[in-house]
Structure formats: C-alpha cells, structure tokens
Amino acid sequence: IVGIVNFGFIFRTMLSITNAANVGATYASTSTAAANNLSTISAAALAESDGWNCDNPAVSKAVTTDGDGNPSVSVTVRCTVNNLLALPAMPGEITLEHTVVRRIMP
After folding, report:
1. How wide is the angle at C-alpha 100 spanned by C-alphas 98 and 105, nearest 5°?
2. What stretch of H or E contains 82?
3. CA–CA separation, 75 vs 27, rounded Å?
4. Cβ(103)–Cβ(75) under 8 Å?
5. Which has the closest alpha carbon to 53: 76, 77, 78, 79?
6. Cα separation of 96 and 81, whole Å?
C-alpha cells in the first residue's frame, strides 16, 4: 500500500509538470519576443505549480526551427521529488522532467 501511495504522489507531480511545460510552451509560442524571454516563460509555467512537492523546479527553453524551416520553441520543466514515505527499496528522490515543443506564431 505504501508503494501505491508513493506512486500516486509522484504521478500527480508528473501531471503537474506536464501541465506547466504545456502552459510555458503555449505562452512562448505567441511571438518570437515571448519565445526569447525565459523569465516570463518561467513565470507562466511555474504559475501552474500550485501543490507541487518538488525541490527547486527549473524551466529551460530552446528556440530552433522545425523540419519545414518554421521557428519553434521547446520548454522543459524539471524538478526533484522526494518520496512521500521513505522505503529502503525505493530511491530517496526522483527527478521528473517534461518537454513540450510548439511552433512560434508568425
């Protein structure tokens, strides 16, 4: 049962990280200026972090071009989660990460 509780705890945090990366990438894709401003992308992504249980969430971005030559932005959200309940067979912490790529609007 303890393992199920830990899994649920980590799964909930992963869903939150996925949502935050999606929000950050959606904001960044609104313009080239927005895609190049990491502080506002971070603010948008981390505004979705209510209820996270992670240490030092980090947001990074990369502006590239896709296969068709269109500008795109990728936003990655990463955080380290400590297990809710310490068990000898489980690692004490797990790093979760999710990246979302969006085409930048012209």
Report:
1. 160
2. strand 71-82
3. 10
4. no
5. 79
6. 7
- Report the pLDDT value the prediction gives residue 89, as an integer from 0 to 100: 65
Signed CA dihedral, 68, 30, 60, 15: sign only:
negative
pLDDT tens digit sequence for 61-95: 999 998 899 999 999 999 988 776 666 666 678 88
Closest CA to 71 of 44, 100, 99, 101: 101
Question: What does the pLDDT look like over 36-65, one tens digit per residue?
Answer: 999 999 999 998 776 677 778 899 999 999
Q: CA–CA separation, 66 vs 55, rounded Å?
A: 33
Spatial CB neighbours of 65, under 8 Å, sequence gap ≥ 6: 71, 72
In this structure, how many other beta carbons lie within 10 angstroms of the beta carbon of residue 51?
A: 8
